[in-house]
UniProtKB/TrEMBL annotation:
This is DNA polymerase V. InterPro entries: LexA-like, LexA/Signal_pep-like_sf, LexA_repressor, Peptidase_S24_LexA, Peptidase_S24_S26A/B/C. CDD domains: S24_LexA-like (cd06529). Signal peptide: none annotated. Belongs to the peptidase S24 family. GO terms for molecular function: DNA binding; hydrolase activity. It comes from the Bacteria. PANTHER family: LEXA REPRESSOR (PTHR33516), LEXA REPRESSOR-RELATED (PTHR33516:SF2). Residues 1-21 are annotated as: Disordered. It comes from Thiocapsa roseopersicina. SUPFAM superfamilies: LexA/Signal peptidase (SSF51306). The keyword Translocase does not apply. GO terms for biological process: DNA repair; regulation of DNA-templated transcription; SOS response.
């Protein structure tokens, strides 16, 4: 049996994301959070949004959960005797996202920053409120494409440098578009 409504309304693939859509049930209490999440997606080169894992929203940020922080360092060499002292607790929200409204999580794809400790599949904590500075690792948009590189100024020109010998630096030439989307503040890895 055919659907008489099929083909009516907006043609398939012509919406905001230029791809087929799917109906999904969302709890009424979360509709605004889903809308805010979708509205926060930056455009990809094809205009359909970016690979964005999450943006802390004021309404979606859980209350601070403090984790115990021990006083002594953990040695990576020879074991040391354990102590019973604790420092103040750590709030991961405050540690990872001091500018919560401007902080995003992005998953890395590729190996161009591996010698800076950023590997394929890692999650970057990116703060859009920070000023990009020479030597900082940034998420940049070059001619509509997202990339993570170290920002450098060379002879009055901007360069985006990889941290891997197989990837040459991106030296911007006249007419190329560059936008520094945010500054990488932390790398989250699985072990």
């Amino acid at each position: 049996m055919s659907n008489p409504a099929r083909g009516r309304g907006r043609p398939s693939g012509t919406g905001r994301y230029r791809e087929p859509t799917r109906v999904m049930r969302v709890p009424e209490s979360r509709v605004e959070a889903v809308r805010a999440y979708l509205d926060a997606l930056p455009p990809r080169a094809d205009g359909t949004g970016a690979v964005l894992l999450g943006r802390p929203q004021a309404s979606a940020i859980p209350p601070p959960r403090r984790l115990a922080r021990m006083v002594w360092p953990v040695r990576a060499g020879f074991p040391s005797p354990a102590e019973d002292d604790q420092e103040e607790a750590i709030d991961l929200n405050a540690l990872l996202a001091p500018n919560a409204e401007a902080t995003f999580l992005l998953r890395v794809s590729g190996l161009s920053m591996s010698e800076a400790g950023i590997d394929d599949g890692d999650v970057l904590v990116v703060d859009r409120a920070l000023e990009p500075a020479h030597g900082r690792i940034v998420v940049a948009v070059v001619d509509g494409e997202f990339t993570v590189k170290r920002l450098h100024r060379r002879d009055g020109r901007i360069a985006l440098e990889a941290a891997h010998p197989d990837y040459p630096p991106i030296l911007l030439s006249e007419g190329q578009e560059l936008s520094v989307w945010g500054v990488v503040t932390r790398v989250i890895k699985s072990v």
